[in-house]
Design brief:
Layout (H helix, E strand, L loop, with lengths): L1 E5 L3 H12 L3 E6 L2 H8 L5 E4 L5 H7 L6 E4 L4 H14 L3 E5 L3 H5 L1 H8 L3 E3 L1 H14 L5 E5 L4 E7 L14 H5 L4 E7 L2 E3 L12 E6 L4 H7 L9 E5 L3 H12 L3 E6 L2 H10 L4 E4 L5 H6 L7 E4 L4 H14 L4 E5 L6 H4 L6 E3 L1 H17 L6 E7 L4 E7 L20 E8 L2 E3 L12 E6 L14
Parallel strand pairs: 1-2, 1-4, 2-3, 4-5, 5-6, 12-13, 12-15, 13-14, 15-16, 16-17
Antiparallel strand pairs: 7-8, 8-11, 9-10, 9-11, 18-19, 19-22, 20-21, 20-22
């Protein structure tokens, strides 16, 4: 596809990298020459310096030949106007990043009026992801499919677990669970396992199951399921606001620390049930005064990555079992933070890129099967997809044991009209089903692509 990305910030660069990896022709545009150069010097894309809200600039950047324009500048109004111009001038699909809580509440109307194909609020989506992690505090990752009926969680096998030195084929008899282990990481190596794969303590695994089965599984494999009741949020920005609002709805006690007095006043009015503290969350004195050691979870969501990392490292030294979630935005920190004890890492740029990549894949497929959901797990080395089964599938009614599935791919769950099936060799895929698939292969767009001819 021919795609124009308007906005060459961190999100724009990450998005350009993902789209190029998916074999798309990408042009990036920004009003800043330096911003354009920063992307074109590291990613194989065309660059154009110009204002994305200018009809002339859009035409010169190639909007007439574009299939999609993605507006991810730092200004909501600019993104919406760029998409409106692209829709009228180029008649292409459009995606806008819209972050303001005010616009989020009116997004249905705005999408219709502007003709947006998709909008994304990274801060809101990040807050929802944090909520899932807080609901399952022992998880490294939590993703959902089938409108929440299927959960994919990442966990680390603890020392002395019943799973230690256990072959996956013996798991159900030993543990008595409907869970399915679909990805393993042993000694840093990620693979799609089979029944003969032997698990070890300290291995990281991704498991599919229903949300209601999570606590039972964790208890059986030796992970204490702790319920989160008290959460501290360091940073009262947009993510902090969205997160606090959702946690309060779940009857979780929320304490927000922010050093901006004006913002604290705003939050006090917006979130009357939350405790708002005006102070610096990187100061030990403030943290001790607010009893940080008694918190069940601390979310480090300040504007500066360095401050978030510093706070996370301090919390790790407390050794109090606090669930820590850290927001990191800078591209240069991606490799560094994965080696540090900073808890769960949240990146709005990665979340945005993942959501948009899912939509682009759906656009690519004109044959009926679509990518309904897409997550990158195990530090981006594995993709977990929900794929709908279209009329062109060609293997309806064929038992899974008779299908030749590509290497390093696994069908984890089947959603058939709301009934969730843990697939076995005698099960089939039927037209209209939705299958959850994990694979180390990149660029899968259709269920047909995981079946060898």
């Amino acid at each position: 596809m021919n795609i124009i990305v308007a906005g060459c910030g961190k999100v724009g660069q990450t998005l350009a990298e993902r789209l190029v990896a998916g074999n798309h022709e990408v042009t990036v545009m920004d009003i800043s020459y330096d911003a354009v150069s920063a992307v074109t010097s590291t990613v194989d894309v065309m660059g154009y310096q110009g204002d994305c809200t200018s009809i002339v600039s859009q035409k010169e950047a190639g909007i007439k030949d574009a299939d999609l324009l993605i507006a991810v500048t730092g200004d909501d109004e600019k993104n919406m106007l760029a998409c409106l111009i692209a829709k009228k001038t180029g008649r292409c699909h459009t995606i806008a990043r819209i972050r303001s809580p005010q616009y989020t509440e009116e997004i249905g109307y705005l999408k219709d009026e502007l003709g947006l194909s998709m909008s994304i609020n990274p801060e809101y989506v990040a807050a929802e992801e944090i909520v899932r992690l807080i609901q399952i505090p022992s998880a490294l990752e939590v993703d959902t499919f089938a409108k929440g009926r299927i959960t994919l969680i990442g966990i680390e096998i603890p020392e002395g677990s019943v799973l230690d030195n256990l072959a996956i084929k013996d798991m159900n008899n030993k543990v008595g669970t409907n869970a399915l282990i679909c990805v393993t990481e042993h000694a840093g190596e990620v693979s799609i396992p089979n029944g003969d794969t032997v698990l070890h303590s300290k291995d990281k695994i991704s498991v599919t199951l229903s949300m209601g089965e999570v606590s039972n599984l964790l208890n059986k494999i030796g992970i204490k399921a702790k319920k989160i009741k008290n959460v501290m949020i360091a940073g009262g920005g947009t993510i902090g606001y969205y997160l606090a609002k959702r946690l309060l709805e779940l009857r979780i006690n929320v304490k927000i620390i922010d050093k901006n007095p004006v913002r604290c006043e705003e939050l006090s009015e917006l979130l009357p049930k939350a405790m708002i503290i005006c102070g610096d969350a990187t100061e030990k004195r403030v943290l001790l005064q607010e009893s940080v050691e008694q918190m069940d979870a601390v979310c480090c969501l300040m504007h500066q990555d360095e401050a978030n990392i510093l706070l996370s490292l301090y919390l790790d030294n407390l050794q109090s079992g606090i669930k820590v979630i850290t927001k990191v935005h800078r591209n240069s920190y991606d490799d560094l933070v994965t080696e540090l004890p900073v808890g769960n890492i949240i990146s709005t740029k990665s979340i945005t890129a993942d959501y948009i990549a899912r939509y682009v894949r759906s656009m690519q497929n004109s044959m009926g099967s679509e990518v309904e959901a897409l997550y990158r797990i195990m530090d981006g080395r594995v993709e977990a997809l929900e794929l709908s089964v279209g009329e062109d599938y060609g293997y309806a009614g064929v038992e899974l044991k008779d299908l030749h599935i590509i290497d390093n791919a696994l069908i984890c769950r089947i959603n058939r009209n709301g009934k969730i099936i843990r697939p076995g060799g005698r099960d089939t895929l039927e037209v209209g089903d939705r299958a959850v698939v994990v694979t180390t292969a990149k660029g899968i767009n259709s269920i047909r692509e995981i079946v060898k001819g």
